[in-house]
User: What shape does this take?
Amino acid sequence: MMIGGYTLDLYCDGALDCPKKESTQNSNGTSRPPAQYYGETGQECRKQAIEDGWSLSLKEGLCLCPACAKAGVKPSTLLHSEPIDSSEP
Assistant: This one.
């Protein structure tokens, strides 16, 4: 028997003080992501996340939680303001 599935763990790329940026602790001491979706395909998981209000950018690999998306936070403003020197090791 073959079993397959997909898990999508989301962390907010929005406001610096957003509580959905960090993992939280379960009662047994393990950590969990702020949002987690399960499905048979990635598309199914993304659809669930979008229905819950998450804003996803597959091209940039960024996402915003429902609160940051509603507030109009732009994840691109949190990226490096200066060019990264790729010649450094």
Summary: The helical segments are 42-51, 66-71. The first helix runs from residue 42 to 51. DSSP finds two helices and six strands in the chain. Residues 6-68 form one domain.
